[in-house]
Design brief:
CATH architecture of the largest domain in chain A: 2-Layer Sandwich
Shape of chain A: globular
Order of helices and strands of chain A: EHEHEHEHEHEHEHEEEEEEEEEHHE
Oligomer: homotetramer
Number of strands of chain A: 17
CATH class of the largest domain in chain A: Alpha Beta
Radius of gyration of chain A: 21 Å
Chain lengths: 375, 375, 375, 375
Amino acid sequence: MAQDDKRASVGIGLIGSGFMGRCHANAFRSVAGLFDVPLEPRLNVLADASDELAAQAAQALGFVRGTGSWQELVADEAVDIVAITAPNVLHAPIAHAAIAAGKTVYCEKPLSTTAAIALEMTEAAEAASVVTLVGFNFLRNPMIKLAREIIASGEIGEVTGFRGRHAENYMANSEVAHSFRTDPQGGGALADIGSHIISMARYLLGPIAEVQADCRTIHATRPVAPGASERAPVEVDDMTHALLRFENGVSGSLEANWAATARTMDLSWEITGTKGALGFSQEQMNELLLWSATPGRSGYTRIEAGPAHPPYGAFCPAPGHHLGFNDLKVIEVAELLSAHAGGPACGPDFREAYEVQRAVEAMQQSHADRRWITL
Amino acid sequence: MAQDDKRASVGIGLIGSGFMGRCHANAFRSVAGLFDVPLEPRLNVLADASDELAAQAAQALGFVRGTGSWQELVADEAVDIVAITAPNVLHAPIAHAAIAAGKTVYCEKPLSTTAAIALEMTEAAEAASVVTLVGFNFLRNPMIKLAREIIASGEIGEVTGFRGRHAENYMANSEVAHSFRTDPQGGGALADIGSHIISMARYLLGPIAEVQADCRTIHATRPVAPGASERAPVEVDDMTHALLRFENGVSGSLEANWAATARTMDLSWEITGTKGALGFSQEQMNELLLWSATPGRSGYTRIEAGPAHPPYGAFCPAPGHHLGFNDLKVIEVAELLSAHAGGPACGPDFREAYEVQRAVEAMQQSHADRRWITL
Amino acid sequence: MAQDDKRASVGIGLIGSGFMGRCHANAFRSVAGLFDVPLEPRLNVLADASDELAAQAAQALGFVRGTGSWQELVADEAVDIVAITAPNVLHAPIAHAAIAAGKTVYCEKPLSTTAAIALEMTEAAEAASVVTLVGFNFLRNPMIKLAREIIASGEIGEVTGFRGRHAENYMANSEVAHSFRTDPQGGGALADIGSHIISMARYLLGPIAEVQADCRTIHATRPVAPGASERAPVEVDDMTHALLRFENGVSGSLEANWAATARTMDLSWEITGTKGALGFSQEQMNELLLWSATPGRSGYTRIEAGPAHPPYGAFCPAPGHHLGFNDLKVIEVAELLSAHAGGPACGPDFREAYEVQRAVEAMQQSHADRRWITL
Amino acid sequence: MAQDDKRASVGIGLIGSGFMGRCHANAFRSVAGLFDVPLEPRLNVLADASDELAAQAAQALGFVRGTGSWQELVADEAVDIVAITAPNVLHAPIAHAAIAAGKTVYCEKPLSTTAAIALEMTEAAEAASVVTLVGFNFLRNPMIKLAREIIASGEIGEVTGFRGRHAENYMANSEVAHSFRTDPQGGGALADIGSHIISMARYLLGPIAEVQADCRTIHATRPVAPGASERAPVEVDDMTHALLRFENGVSGSLEANWAATARTMDLSWEITGTKGALGFSQEQMNELLLWSATPGRSGYTRIEAGPAHPPYGAFCPAPGHHLGFNDLKVIEVAELLSAHAGGPACGPDFREAYEVQRAVEAMQQSHADRRWITL
């Protein structure tokens, strides 16, 4: 017998087919075979810059059809969830249209190019009571969930210090050209990847109260386009170091750096508490370090991900079989489908993404003003 | 426009829906969105122990229909590739039937319960010229492919030594009950996971010429079934240490251990050459250690997986975004589809799997006889 | 024949016999058997808080005699080098006396309780042209010397970023009592161990131009004495995070933390350059991480200390045999003896120690004023 | 007042001034300043190959006098402890002379060139009731003592498996010339460094009952002397892999390899028990890995050496300040002085060293015979 009539389905409309678009598509394809989701995703429409590109991408990624018009996609009755992986500048108009159409909106980070626009999007979504989710996928890691539980339980005592970083090297070379990444509107290392460590810090420790950052542009100019000999000034940061104080009194620092020559994924932190501590690096994403005091036996314990750490078990019943980056997106989509079907809000929603963006802008402002900024 | 007419499809029949069955299903679902495969898999039939179980599994894993009869699945014209994740004892009859039907056979390891039966399967497949592939998925890791290339290129000089291990802890507890794993016919740590490090050693260094092993049963008895108070003797090894000599003159050792209390996935090795060395552990599956001599700068370099190491780029265009265990299966399936469509043989085929099994049995024999065995 | 007449000797006077006093004594005892030093140290006088304590310590540490008067020690003609491991508040009077007596002064860090006093000491020493050395022993590590050479050579390109830390847990417990460490005059985590990472940053990257720090007292009160039930407020920092800009344009951050529950010796840093990067942690003090770009082979190389990294070879002719903390002090003393005998200045001298202290105070001021401070 | 009359002294006679001779001298110089030893060592006589060499070495290492005659040294009444770091072939005659003179004998490993000679030395020492100690200094590591205590206490349950290795690269190059190391009498990787992992295995797990080894000569010839163009065959192993069974039923494997290109000090092991496990590598000699089961928190805990692990505290009162290789020798000498003064035997004595040598020879024999050997 066919399975089709067994599980209700939900129509997916995906806008964009780059790195993140492919990642979304894969997650929607995979999720129902791994998670007991309430709804089976149907990959109905893919929108891209033109009909032709969209058709090619639809075929490659397994969507029923493609379209060069995201407006058409949003309006399509076969689309229940609008997944936005388009350029950042398009996030707001697409999201507003999708919200107006009452659809669930699943948007890649950053939510928008400015916090002000992000706030408008947030308020629109809240007014319309639509489900929103922003793709801070690193939060989906079972080890990050475990870290949050450990902190919340008091197992490491009262938290006293935070030291975080997101460092990669994709812009380390001065010959990497200008792109949306270096657009003063929403660009720079702090906005692009600093937002990940900010979102993770907030997830683990709560709101940030005050910041003081130091932003630096390492490469003064870059080619105006890939391979171009003409160069234009860079107006965004390549590297930012920041001091931060959380509302709960914890203080610490973070670094955002896309010119960290030796690093490909140093999204890492150490959180110190009065009784213990936690350490994590995305470079060993299947591990969490936990320190607890035992006379003569103290030290960091390297906890390996396993079925004891949900939802790892959805992927594999045995420990030691690593999750990968794409699996984090599958978890994200599983939680999205649950929320879409009326389950608990899964976050980070638009408001949370707005708060992250607000922290980014506060850091930028603190740099410009050379002073502490209270959020 | 719909994509369906664009890419030819291939019908999949999957037998079994346990850990590995789910893993196969996920790979078949995902592969076409990640790899530019020549054929789009259609998840047509899933067979399990009963019609009911099969129907449930078919729905959960996204297959069109289920059946309690693997014979029916094999005979179904909608099935082009027969994927076998059934109990080991069924591998041979299913494979023979699929071979007789001229179908591509994709079988989980071990190929069979004895090398003799595996040889029969191999000869049947070769006589029928069907494509075969056995699921030694750890070989699909881009870092393992890189290691093989480095060795083949002479970059580390002439290889002199090998030290390997596959250690996990899933049978460490004496209360884990008897199962197919402890069946003297094909069971034991050496057969179950030692086969992985043997296959990897062969993949990297070629055939093994001589072995001398020491097998040990750590827990003399186990419950006859989960939760049972009745116990029965264990007749297979929990841990085996072996000396080995390769045909190319390299000598070394390996360990297979499913009672390695502290280990969940220590599939690891060091390969020493006259000019350099390589190190790997599945616990850090996205890394390869490469040692090369530079005065005052010598040391192991920790190479992180990235797009420079195919087919990593199929999953992600940026380095540092880890692959996970399930991704290895997707790579395996991509290579299977290519071979099925007439592309190059991807291996390990039935003959290679037979050779692995022969090495396992030679080790067991060497233990029983307390002497070196020449393969 | 006796050796005594072969090598000229130098008389040592050591003030203090605590942790660092013992460490000095050991270094002076050992150095001539390991290094080809120009002068053989004679452990002539040890001064401590009383004649009795001094006599006991002299015997335990191998000094000819003890005295309760550091003034007497300084005045003793048998003392050529005055080694100061007394409480910080005594550094200045002892140093001034020793300088006045024209003796070489070897002082533990911090040089004094305030930068102003440290500057007076510095000017006195420079006016008298005596040799001075301050015990920032972590700089003596062969791997730190190697790092400095690599940076100076341009091997990692132009340096762009610094991220440093010195974190330990010796004050993590709120029941650790007040002591000189918590004296507002010269105390606190930043002064006590932050000075180490500041000195190392200066050693590797040069002067610091601007700072902005955030200091935090984690435990508001501590017992007034060990075991006391009475408590008094803590007026120094337990943890400081700071932004810093170097004169050469490099920017970065550092943390000083003596309440870092999980850390016993996280004196660590990463230095990023446009072509490569370096990483170090005192937790693996016999290693230096060096990143350099090679297509498909990029990664951190873990360089192990060996005879290729002077003066490792003074301790052992073979690589892989670790140096320990006390060995760093032996290197320091070997360089001190060379400088005392007219060899090249070895640093850090009083002026350099003053500069470190000035940076500490600038950070404290920046915290108090909540603004950037230019040094 | 002078200290000389306070502590009784013991006269040291050191034979040899190479790597190990210097290491001994340093330990004898340092020990009384670090440990509360009952006797203060007096570095009285150093013997070397000639009077001239001995005089030079005596001066360099701080001995009162030198002599070209070890016989004279042994006979000297000022010598209470005879420390032997001479070529292996001289160990026996020197030891017999020292035993005959009733002196404590402190001998570098290997005890002799053959087990038979080592047994004679052992029996002579036991008959004369002299204190003996053989320099397996890696056993002195506080973390190794901790491991032994953990095992003995049952903390990791019943031990089931052992996997050990000592791998270095000092003979990896085929141009390293013949020396005592390649002398068939007592030479080879197994004898030279395999003895370390054997002694450590015995220290932790007790006697070895049965062995089966595979020895390999990687470089068939080597220069007859450094720089010589003439080459001679190599008759000893460069690399040995061995299976072993302990008397207590534990089974496992070890590797000895002096041609391990990438390794400078991989003296490492994992010991698995039914409840936990331990891991160690001399490459991180200040750490011990301990695995213990805690639901959702299981993993290896990296215990850092500190004052909780005697005798670490003799070197430093704070954790995290690493011990180095030379410190292990200081601990060894402290224990020797205690035993010499009538304290508890410290081991490994001559008999233990003989047992190690017997295990080495059994492994060599098992290789030659291609069979298991029962010790």
